[in-house]
Amino acid sequence: MPRRNIFLPTLCIVLLIGIWTFQLPNSRSYPHRSVDWLESKLSSDSSFSSSAPPSSPPSPPSSPPSSSKPKDPPPEAQAPELVPAQTLSTPPSIPGNDIDLSQPDAPFVPWPLKRVCDEATWVEGLVYICDNNSGGVGNIRNYIQTCIRYALEAGATGLTIPRIRKRSEEDLADLFTEYLPFSYMFDEQRFREAFNTSCPQITLYDSVNDIPGVGEKPKIDLITPKDFGNREGCDRQDQNRHTDRFGLTFRKWLHNEKHGHPPSKEKPRLIRFNWGVLWDWQIYRDGPEFASTFGGILKFNDQLLRLGNKTLEKMHAFARKDGAKDGAFLGIHLRTESDALGFWPTYDTQSEAYLKQAQKRGFQTAYLATGNLTEADKFVDAAIEMAQMRVVTKSDLLTGADLEELESLSWDQQGLVDFVVLLGSKFFVGAMPSSFSVYMAIKRHLKTGGLYTRPYKTGTEGDGLSYLVGKYDKYWAGWLFMWDGMWP
To answer: DSSP assignment, residue 186?
Structure first.
């Protein structure tokens, strides 16, 4: 029998083993790229995340502490290191991941904003004015945040502190009365500290007149971001599909003398958006960390938080007295005020869905947020009759000086007090497509994943925290695009 030539097969096997040994990545050599830039020092105070960034990138979960074992042998003597399967689904320990971001007064987590700012291409003399907004808190917030996000992409080195357009108290559909300061709704100190900490490249101005070099009659360019990209027949309500290229395209336009002088420190260029730039930015393009924390720049002001927390405290006490374990209650947003649009769910549709949820989940008490006092009384009676559930409002819970202070607030400010209470409910029901209800649902959804919260499953009760009654069969006509373009 002839001898087989085994030399070549043996050589191949040896070579394969050698390649495997020297090319397999060592988990200790590759820190998590999503956090490796966290080495920079960030200042902090009580309103920011107390978790300071690590001085060096965190090691992967599978890496044993270096102090607990002798010095590693040279690479050629190491066996391939395997990562236990169960550790792969666990995010590394990252600053801010231990914070309940669904709370209205949650500390600000600055590093995701810093990451976006560190990636920006800055333009000296470019200033964005983010004040062309209107509506309730869901709209106002997203107008401001959308404008700021575009400003970062454009490379603006200046921002004016946003102003807020007040709604008429006599006609709720009139959204364009006088301008009020940022503090009408939000905490200006938080806003300033967020940018001073995360984006020191940006100068914040109190007003347009405070910008050096603008003159007595500042010229402001009005733009619409979607004009800086070929949308190829997309529905006009669709998000901007060119945000990745907006900065480059915008700066090319900005430096074209046909559209005005190039910006400089001595001769700045001022940019304001045309009205209606609201749900433009697909929020998860920046990653879940930014999507989950960007809303922290717009914390409610101290007065509204205090009244909201006082009302929530009294609501928990009311629910406990009524026999609810741990003071649990159902939160309800009845959106039937005079400015509600015709295709929104009617009172009958909303009330029927809300009371079904109450019966299904066994609630005995509920908190009702609505600006329609007539239908509030109607719903209170229906809840007792159909679900044996007691329903109260903020005006029922507050007394004395607290009630007087509440009644001194505007319609939209009182809505923010409601918002704080509804965040504290065990389960929330609202109406689609109310931006107040959508904002509530996605803010509550942050309980499910913190920094790594995945998008809300629209039109479902998937997270076990909220349900919005409405139509979900048409993306644009039903305003479902809000879920893709609203920051929690």
So the answer is: B
Please, are residues 104 and 444 in contact by the beta-carbon 8 Å criterion? no
Bigger pLDDT: 47 or 317? Answer: 317
Q: How far is CA 460 from CA 64, 76, 453, 465, in A?
A: 42, 54, 16, 10
Residue 22 Rama label (left phi>0; alpha psi -120 to 50; beta): alpha
DSSP-assigned beta bridge partners for residue 270: 127, 220
CB 221 within 8 A of CB 260: yes
Instruction: Kindly report the number of other CB atoms within 10 A of residue 230's CB atom.
Output: 10
With b for 16 or more beta-carbon neighbours within 10 A and e for fewer, the 362-375 pattern comes to ebbbbbbbbbbeeb
Measure CA 132 to chain center. 20
Rounded to the nearest 5°, which phi and psi values hold at 270? Answer: -105, 135
The arrangement of strands across the sheet holding 365-369 comes to 390-392, 365-369, 330-333, 427-431, 466-469
Residues 190-245 pLDDT 10s: 999 999 999 999 999 999 999 999 988 999 999 999 999 877 777 777 788 889 99
Which amino acid is it at 471?
K
Cis peptide before 112 (omega within 30 of 0): no
pLDDT in the model for residue 337: 80
How many residues can be counted in the chain?
488
In this prediction, residues 400-404 reach a mean pLDDT of 98
Closest CA to 126 of 232, 272, 11, 284: 272
Q: Which residue has the tokens 């917030």?
A: 141
Query: What's the confidence (pLDDT) of residue 25?
Result: 42
The phi and psi torsions of 271 (rounded to 5 degrees) equal -125, 130
